[in-house]
Amino acid sequence: MNYLAIDTSTDICSVSIFSGSKYNTLVNDSTKDHSEYLPVFVKKLLNDNNIKINFIALNIGPGSFTGLKIGSSFSKGLAKALNIPIIPVSSFDTLGRGISLDSYYLAIYSHRDFAFYAYYKNGVESELKCDKISNLSGYKVFGYGFPSELNVDYDEVKPCSEKVGMIGLEHYELYKNKSINEINPIYLMQKSN
After folding, report:
1. What is the pLDDT of residues 145-158, one digit of tens each?
2. Which of 52, 140, 157, 188 could form a Cys-Cys staple with 104, CB 3.0–4.6 A?
3. For residue 13, which of 103, 80, 100, 75 has the smallest C-alpha distance?
4. What are all long-range contacts of 149-155, with beta carbons under 8 Å and residues at least 24 apart?
């Protein structure tokens, strides 16, 4: 199967094209404007690989409001034009891939002293939150984007379209018939001041 995978959930803009088990990826590791890179990356990958894609795997968040909106809007337009499905993938599914601890947090820096996060125990995800970073205590934290001045003790796991694509392929049967209008970003609002 041939497909695109898109991740615009953070300051990383990452797009991969998969053909069977092989893939090519284009990445900008630090952008504030995904709309500048996303269409260019997709056009280059489609032109260079000259294949018809069967679906788009899309990171739907949580993450950057603007990044998620750009990724979602672009993917919906392309999916509509090509008459193909979008397969949604959670940011935390990609970040947690390969973690084998019993209890831990997955987190993405949001703003000031807030993060998007969820606690995991024995592989079960708790409620998704946007809350104070200080609430990330008692367990190992895996995540992305925390400024060094906040002194957050965490293991960095970078978001990437490769993982979005691999998980998207696993979820294909579940979402292949779902309307693209039902695929929406996960936007989290901060819980406390």
Report:
1. 999 999 999 999 99
2. 140
3. 75
4. 150/109, 150/113, 152/109, 154/107
Give φ, ψ of 62 to 5 degrees.
-70, 165
Q: Residue 162 in contact with residue 6, Cβ under 8 Å?
A: no
Residue 169 CA to chain centroid, in angstroms? 14
- Residues 43, 132, single domain; the answer is no
Q: And the tokens for 88? A: 């949604």
Q: What is the pLDDT of residues 25-59, one digit of tens each?
A: 999 999 989 999 999 999 999 999 999 999 999 99
Type of residue found at 91: S
Residue range of the domain that includes 150: 98-156
DSSP 133: G
85, 56: one domain: yes
CB 106 within 8 A of CB 76: no
Q: Tell me: the pLDDT tens digits for 94-110?
A: 999 999 999 999 999 99
In a domain, 187, yes or no: no
Reported residue count of the chain is 193
State whether 164 and 133 are in the same domain.
no
CA pair distance 62, 55, nearest whole angstrom: 21
The CA distance from 53 to 151, in Å, is 43
- Provide the pLDDT for residue 190: 82
Distance between CA atoms of residues 139 and 188, nearest Å: 22
